[in-house]
Write a structure and sequence with these properties.
By secondary structure, the chain is of the alpha/beta class. It has a single domain, classed as Glutaredoxin (3-Layer(aba) Sandwich). The chain is built from five helices and five strands; from the N terminus they run βαβαβαββαα. β4 and β5 form a beta hairpin. The radius of gyration is 15 Å and the shape is globular.
Length: 135
């Protein structure tokens, strides 16, 4: 019997007691946020429970990409957003709005940019270029 197995890495901004293996614990300087963005070919960042994040994630999964997902809690949203703004300024990109999709360590855009790029047929080559897709 054949089937498809999907695996998503979730980075939590809260540290529940022994629940999360990959917690995101910022230490005032936001360096962990930068590391998570740079370590993953594709990462979707959004508020916990955001339906637009879910849509972006499902689109990417449908294309065969297994994006990392960073869900931001209310308590750490300001700190995470400040670090994301610093990352985007360094790469001369637009301001960050959630959900934010980073491809190849750079801000790609939000739901609208991902959908438009997908519809135009340009998303798959971009994902292949950064190593998020092999076929």
């Amino acid at each position: 019997m054949q089937g498809t197995i999907s695996c998503t890495r979730h980075y939590n901004t809260m540290i529940p007691a022994a629940e999360s293996l990959l917690p995101l614990k910022t230490q005032g300087n936001g360096e962990r946020v930068r590391t998570v963005v740079e370590e993953n070919a594709v990462i979707v960042i959004g508020r916990r429970g955001c339906c637009m994040c879910h849509v972006v994630n499902m689109l990417l999964l449908g294309l065969g990409v297994n994006p990392a997902v960073l869900e931001i809690d209310e308590e750490s949203e300001k700190e995470v957003m400040n670090e994301l703004e610093r990352i985007s300024v360094e790469s001369d990109r637009e301001t960050v709005t959630l959900p934010a999709v980073y491809i190849g360590g750079r801000l790609f855009g939000g739901l609208d940019r991902v959908m438009a790029t997908h519809i135009s047929g340009e998303l798959v080559p971009i994902l292949k270029k950064v190593g998020a897709l092999w076929l």
